[in-house]
Amino acid sequence: MQIEVAATKQQTAVNFADWLIDRIHSNDTLHVALSGGSTPKIVFDELASRNLSVIKWRKVHLYWGDERCVSPEDSESNYKMTVEHLLSKIEIPEGNIHRVKGENDPSQEAQRYSEELRQYLPIVDGLPQFDVVILGMGDDGHTASIFPHEIELWNAEQLCAVAQHPETGQKRITITGKIINHAIVVAFLVTGESKAEKVGEIINERGGYKSYPAHLVHPSSENLMWFLDEPAAAEITTQS
């Protein structure tokens, strides 16, 4: 595990953008699963500001780790957010953008997206493999769209599953633990003091951490990174 702590949310975005761009430069192709949420917004803005050439972006294939079951024009769509903060500002081939079709029937879309992952990602040990999976974490310890009340989805046989928000009942498509932990690198992006308690419990394995889906992120590659700001990192007692 590697933990990078920055003073501010903006500096966390800069640090992550630096790290991801280094990977873009050093790989012939890079398959990346994106996250939604407030922190990725500023990361996407930062990436867009770097003015990477179309040659560099041609190497990158973008996917989504989860998506709300809404249309791509809906204000809650992770895809729409990514268009506004990144895709509309860079030159990337349309064929390199692999969105979850949130407007489709959820069960059918989970199956379709699983097949898309099998089609475009390298198959390693029988499973599609991302180069990078970017994850956020909710105040309740959820990650991707696997919530504590459905933590069993983490170990689902399928690559993608239909999840349900515990309060709104909104359905979502999410990749499952099988493919998250198979990635070459998994990177958490977590900022803000509201996340500090769960971050501390998960990283230091204390309190109720076993009930949080985010604690199940243990890539078989052992390449797990946490990009945090100081407020989110405030309750980490050791950084092992």
Layout of secondary structure:
Layout: E1 2-6, H1 9-26, E2 30-34, H2 38-49, H3 54-57, E3 60-64, E4 66-68, H4 78-85, H5 106-120, E5 123-124, E6 127-128, E7 132-135, E8 160-164, E9 171-175, H6 177-180, E10 185-190, H7 196-204, E11 224-229
Helix pairs in contact: 1-2
GO molecular function, one term: 6-phosphogluconolactonase activity
Domain Glucosamine/galactosamine-6-phosphate isomerase: 8-226
Protein name: 6-phosphogluconolactonase
What does this protein structure show overall?
The model has no long low-confidence stretch (mean pLDDT 96). A hairpin with a 2-residue loop joins β5 and β6 (127-128). α1 (9-26) crosses α2. The chain has helices spanning 9-26, 38-49, 54-57, 78-85, 106-120, 177-180, 196-204; strands at 2-6, 30-34, 60-64, 66-68, 123-124, 127-128, 132-135, 160-164, 171-175, 185-190, 224-229. The protein has 240 residues and is an alpha/beta fold. It has a single domain, classed as Rossmann fold (3-Layer(aba) Sandwich), CATH 3.40.50.1360. Helix content is 29%, strand content 20%. The protein contains seven helices and eleven strands. It has a six-stranded parallel β-sheet with strand order 1-11-10-7-2-3, covered by helices on one side. Strands 4-9-8 form a three-stranded antiparallel β-sheet. Strands 5-6 form a two-stranded antiparallel ribbon. It starts with a strand and ends in an 11-residue tail after the last strand.
